[in-house]
């Protein structure tokens, strides 16, 4: 007999993720996730447009988590994307990934 143990899947706290996004991400990524926030023009690289389903479909959740946690440079992307490892707990970053995925409407 083989016994399998499964780790419980954590449900994303979308309300908290939206609050975090609105507080910390909107300035660059914009309220609609289009990469058009008020600080976007000051960056050397345009922020990612989360509504671009074709582009977002090529990015894994693990990559998005890594970029949020460790910054863009950790994934070979723009260093303009700062690391949030000291600002968010891992669960909050996973929730942000789930929230960011809601911008792509197929």
Total number of helices: 4
The poorly predicted ranges are 1-7
Q: What string gives the helices and strands in order?
A: HHHH
Tell me the fraction of residues in β-strands, as a range. under 5%
Distance from N terminus to C terminus (CA atoms, Å) equals 44 Å
Annotation, overall tally of beta strands: 0
Using the CA coordinates, give the radius of gyration.
Answer: 15 Å
| Main sheet makeup | none
Globular, elongated, flat, extended or rod-shaped: what is the shape?
globular
The chain-level mean pLDDT equals 91
Residues in helices, as a percent range: 25-40%
Protein model, in words:
The structure is a single chain. This protein is mainly α. Helix content is 40%, strand content 0%. It is built from 4 helices and no strands. The protein has helices at residues 14-29, 53-56, 61-70, 90-101. Helix 1 packs across helix 4 and helix 3 crosses helix 4. The longest helix is centred in the N-terminal third of the chain and has 16 residues, at 14-29. The relative contact order is 0.19.
